[in-house]
Amino acid sequence: MFVVIFRATARHLDAEYSATAARLRELALTQFGCLEFVAVTEGSQEVALSYWPDEASIRAWKQHTDHLMAQQMGRERWYSGYSVEVAEIKRHYAAPAAS
Q: Is the Cβ–Cβ distance between 56 and 62 less than 8 Å?
């Protein structure tokens, strides 16, 4: 399993950003094999973690037309800067949630 770590500094997140983010999240999860997607924002900082079964799925997602358009909008309007890291998860374990 792989994780894509997206970190960004927001410039201006508008209604179009929210709609685009929701649509792309759904597309990644339903058509590109994304296993899980979690995003958090604190102040102007955004961190998104998406989990993928393999690198081929990540590459296909990265090149999808809608995702490419969103990347361009991010660079032009929504973010003052961002970084992307792709890492392979070698080990994973969890404890049950407390009741």
A: no
CA distances from 82 to 1, 5, 39, 89 (A): 23, 10, 14, 22
Domain coordinates of the chain in residue numbers?
Answer: 2-88
Candidates 3, 10, 50; CA nearest to 27 is 50
Rounded CA gap, 88 and 67, in Å? 22
Q: In this structure, what are the phi and psi dihedrals at residue 18, rounded to the nearest 5 degrees?
A: -60, -45
Give 9-29 pLDDT, tens digit per residue.
Answer: 999 888 998 999 999 999 999
Protein fold of 2-88: Alpha-Beta Plaits (3.30.70)
Model confidence pLDDT, tens digit, residues 81-93: 999 999 999 999 9
Whether the model clears a pTM of 0.85, i.e. scores above it, the answer is yes
